[in-house]
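User: I'm designing a mutation panel for Aste57867_13903 protein and want to avoid disrupting the core. Could you give me a predicted structure to guide residue selection? Please restate the sequence first so the numbering is unambiguous.

Assistant: Good idea. Sequence first, for numbering, then the predicted structure tokens:
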Amino acid sequence: MRRRVLLVLSLLASWAHAKPMEVDEGGEIKRTGNAGLSEAFNRTINLDRSTSLRIAYPNARFLYIQFSKFDLPHGASLTLTTNESTVMYTGKGKSHTAHDTAFYSDRLVGSAVDIVYKRHHDTSKTHGFGITISSYIRGIPRVDLDTKSALTNPACVNKRPVWRPAVCFQEEAPRVFESSRALARMVTLGASSQYATGFLAGCDGYFLTNEHNVRTQEQVDATDFGFLAASARCDDTCNHLALGCAPKLLLRGAATLVAVDTTLDYTLLRFDHAARRQFQALGVPHLPLRHRSRAVVGETIYIVQHPDGTAAKIVTQLRSGSDAVVSDVDVTNKCGKHQVGYAAETIGGASGSPVLATRDHRVIGLHHCGECNVETSTEGAALRTAIPIHDILADLKKKRIDLPACFTMRHG
């Protein structure tokens, strides 16, 4: 029986770059929308013998392992385990091509991961195969480690925001609740991992989000899309945690870039046939887009979103208790021109959320600018802004993007 070698890696001895005392932890977690940061690792696993090693970072909310090469001999396996997650890979793991075997692992919830390589007893040749870990992403805690309370900027968002978990609307406003089920909680992977929001739009697996969230096919392929990330209970504690309330469907590498525009800050994707079948099986809806008319000042709105990577939330009112409404339809600020303005609360991570009209539950804008990035409204609240959906549809037509009639005609 082959001897298993246990490699326990010390943060102080092996990861000088990952020393917690060298990191401005407070500065990181106060930046809403910032999901995690990448740490270099650079280790190649010897495939000639079964081996174990550990990667850990104090207080990390989650870990993603980045493999720059992943190609296992037949019968061999690599298992990644935390206190809450376990995944096993064989062959080329999650790689999509035979030539490029690089990929990010599945999300591993916890602050430490045990990595176990098992060599098959019949494997005699390992030449040409290999596993190299180039880095890992460690999730920022997103809470005050002493008080356990969420960290938001009180100048922009109340310590008790007026949004509520989506399920709280299931009985009192079922159409509003149904709109929230079209959302995906996005986690973009890279040197600086971000939370974002997007939604199924129109029909046939089309999906809208912001260009500043994802702008290339490579970024799309390195993004987790979590659908139906919401609790069945209004008082569930998972509603208040970043990445709380596990999604019913988690996709990566299933979407294709269709169109992108920097000025209008939108990206249109389309999910593949397999994903669309899963949407249908789970009853995930597509949101209808308002294409015949623009937003109107004074009309009542609501926003469905994943603020700061938390479970689906819905905001329908302002802090004053009055209904959220369109305040302006021609806002110009550092985020853009000719935008729809409103005072409904959002924070980082909500970028890419749909702004919907209450009267017809159609999308009138793509939220892209909020928190402390904007000016103050007449009601004393930060004026958030969205790109008018009418402008996005006009741009898609200008770009001659071939879209099905149902993309805009669904529900009128």
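For picking mutation sites, this is relevant: The helical segments are 11-14, 25-29, 174-180, 217-221, 273-282, 389-398, 406-409. The chain is about 10% helix and 35% strand.
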